[in-house]
Design goal:
The complex is a heterodimer of chains A (115) and B (113). By secondary structure, chain A is mainly beta. Chain A is 0% helix and 52% strand. Chain A is globular, with a radius of gyration of 13 Å. Chain B is built from no helices and 12 strands. In chain B, the strands form 3 sheets. In chain B, strands 2, 5, 6, 10, 11 and 12 form a 6-stranded mixed sheet that branches. Chain B has a 4-stranded antiparallel sheet with strand order 3-9-8-7, with no helix packed on it. A two-stranded antiparallel ribbon of chain B has the order 1-4. In chain B, strand 5 and strand 6 (44-50) form a beta hairpin. Classes of the chains: A mainly beta (115), B mainly beta (113). The A-B interface holds A 2, 4, 33, 35, 42-43, 45, 48, 55-58, 90, 92, 97-109 and B 30-32, 34, 36, 41-46, 49, 51, 89, 93-95, 97-106.
């Protein structure tokens, strides 16, 4: 058990809808990362938050947004969903997110299916 | 930009065979390099890491050496087991626009008994 909790584990929705994925980092970790894993794109970095502030941005679509709350949990909001958004979304956390040698702890992911 | 390229899978081996999964990277500066493993139905977990040139990371019989001259970080294991069947991801963390960790596409390993 990595200590990172993601909910829900599975989500099925329709095109055009909006969903929210939730992540609770490991106790004491200040940084949260979101990744999208799909068969054709592999594991893509979306965004990183550190102690409530956005720290790094990757290939995140404008239809997607995220935030980290004062209790350090994070939410990834996906709107105007398209079929191509179907993927496994991972959250990861690290202690600081400010050193290149830090390891990431991953949650089990949320499997999103857009029908 | 920074990137990681690893050999395409799947790789199928018999138990006790020697494993090599190739990984090369492109990055400015001095990234740290990692191998993560993903077992079915689970998130990724760190397997090993190396933070500077010529460092060797090792764990559970797996090894990888940070080769700056060839920009490589190949994963090796002398004798694989069925329980090693998983997807292996090579990754780097670079201090460019924030401490982003970039992953390779992953290599699926099947080990037959």
């Amino acid at each position: 058990d990595s200590g990172v909790t993601q909910t829900p584990k599975h989500l099925i929705t329709a095109t055009g809808q909006r969903v929210t994925l939730r992540c609770s980092p490991r106790s004491g970790d200040l940084s949260v990362y979101w990744y999208q894993q799909s068969l054709d794109q592999g594991l893509q970095f979306l965004i990183q938050y550190y102690n409530g502030e956005e720290r790094a941005k990757g290939n995140i679509l404008e239809r997607f947004s995220a935030q980290q709350f004062p209790d350090l949990h994070s939410e990834l909001n996906l709107s105007s969903l398209e079929l191509g958004d179907s993927a496994l979304y991972f959250c990861a956390s690290s202690a600081e997110g400010g050193a290149t040698n830090e390891k990431l702890f991953f949650g089990s992911g949320t499997q999103l299916s857009v029908l | 930009g920074d990137s990681v390229t690893q050999m395409e899978g799947p790789v199928t081996l018999s138990e006790e065979a020697f494993l090599t999964i190739n990984c090369t990277y492109t990055a400015t500066g001095y990234p740290s390099l990692f191998w993560y493993v993903q077992y079915p139905g689970e998130g990724l977990q760190l397997l090993l890491k190396a933070t500077k040139a010529d460092d060797k990371g090792s764990n559970k019989g797996f090894e990888a050496t940070y080769r700056k001259e060839t920009t490589s970080f190949h994963l090796e294991k002398g004798s694989v087991q069925v329980s090693d069947s998983a997807v292996y991801f090579c990754a780097l963390t670079q201090r460019t626009g924030g401490f982003k960790t970039i992953f390779g596409a992953g290599t699926r390993l099947f080990v037959k008994a």
